[in-house]
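It is worth pausing here to work through a concrete case rather than discussing structure prediction in the abstract. The textbook approach is simple: state the sequence, then state the predicted structure, then interpret. We follow exactly that order.
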Amino acid sequence: MMQKFIIPKINTIPSKAKIQGQDAKHISKVLRLTKGDRIEITNGEGKDFTAIITFISLGNIELDIIDEYDSLTESPIDITLCSGMLKDKKMDLVIKHLTQLGIQKWIPFFCERSIPTPDMKRMEKRIKRWKIIARESLKQCRRSRLPQISKPLSFEKLLNQSASCDLKIAFWEKATQRLDTLEKNPSNLKIIILIGPEGGFSETEMIVAKKKGFLSYSLGPRILRAETASISSCTLVQHILGDL
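Step two, the predicted structure:
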């Protein structure tokens, strides 16, 4: 099955559009598509379209967008996953796989045991890289909505952003409550999940989180790497609540 290609800001049909750069090269050289072939595109905001190639060259594809249809690949569960800051490659891995799993939003955050805060210029480069990784991952897994990627927040600001969520989960290695006690509830429309950095959350941080309405759960008897915990926690919550 062919991957989707992203063309932002398409909302009406029929219409015309172009694909340029690396995606155009991929279509012409790797996929070897030609004039008259159909491809699947998305606007990255939840809408999918069928398009016909009307012109093709190495770096430029022109399209007629002829049909719109509902996406079948988006998760019915609105998950915001929050990851304690890790080293560069580990965060890259987390956003790559969380995009594939179908999260709606990703919030990196700093807490007591996070890596030191990088300078603003370096942080901006990392955010830009995360968005590129999410975009490439979306094309591969055929999603139709790019996850929102937040700039890193402090732990306090992160907790304040959770006010609108229906279900708040914090995974903590000292928690005793098992995740299989979590019940599917139709009122849990918006879910936020906290995963700490290497070293986990401190006792003080968990006390504050619980005061904000977070329920602490265990991911089992084995201590997981932080990036593994982010991916597995998302998968388990989706499974229990009726997605995967």
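Step three, interpretation. The first helix runs from residue 22 to 30. The radius of gyration is 20 Å.
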